[in-house]
Structures are given as C-alpha cells and as structure tokens.
C-alpha cells in the first residue's frame, strides 16, 4: 500500500482508500447505534434534534471559533484545509490564549 503513487490531490493510495471504504461501511452497518437503535427512544427527541441540527462545521466552530473566517459558509468544513500539499487557510492556524500560534490546525496529528 505504501509503495503506490498517490493519485493527484489525494492523501493516500487507491488501495488504502478502497480498504478504508470497505471497512468503514461494514463498521457502520454493524453498529446498532447507526441502524436499529438510531431512534428517539434511544437518543431522545432532543438528542435526535441535536444530531440533525449540527454539522462538522458547527462542531469545529464550537471548539475553535477562530476558524470562522476559513469555514464561513462552505458546504463542507474540511474544504478550508484545501487540497493535499496546498497548506491551510490562515485562520486554521489559530491558537489558544497563552499558547504560541500553531503552524498546523489544532486537530492535526502530524508534527
């Protein structure tokens, strides 16, 4: 998998992508909280409303409000990161008070 060339604009190889999609769909289909128990009886109506009324953008903005200029009205919050190797929107380089500015988004696992 690691020996393959990466398709333009992608972060991982075609084989890794196919394995990820296959396993992700199997995990979701076997998770009762996404299938048979995805009901107001389990989550409560308030919980279902919260799930339906939020998105990746609202979750990110709740924890990192400095990302608002980068996320704005994008249809997908992750588009603010741009294509692989393009860097990140300057607003994604925010920092918490008392800390030095980060050079990568705060959720990035890479050093």
Please give a structural write-up.
This protein has one domain (14-93). 39% of the residues lie in helices and 0% in strands. The chain is built from four helices and no strands. It has helices at 14-30, 40-53, 56-63, 68-71. The protein is flat, with a radius of gyration of 18 Å. The two termini are 23 Å apart. The model has no long low-confidence stretch (mean pLDDT 77).
Task: List descriptors.
single chain; 111 residues; mainly alpha; 4 helices; flat
- Major sheet: size, sense and barrel closure? none
Number of helices: 4
- Strand % is under 5%
Number-wise, the strands total 0
* Alpha-beta classification: mainly alpha
Helix content: 25-40%
What separation lies between the terminal Cα atoms? 23 Å
Unreliable spans are none
Mean pLDDT over the full residue set:
77
Q: What is the total domain count? A: 1
Q: What is the gyration radius calculated from CA atoms? A: 18 Å
Sum up the overall morphology in one term: flat
Order of helices and strands: HHHH
Strands, helices and their partners?
Blueprint: H1 14-30, H2 40-53, H3 56-63, H4 68-71
Compact overview of the structure:
With 111 residues, this protein is an all-alpha fold.
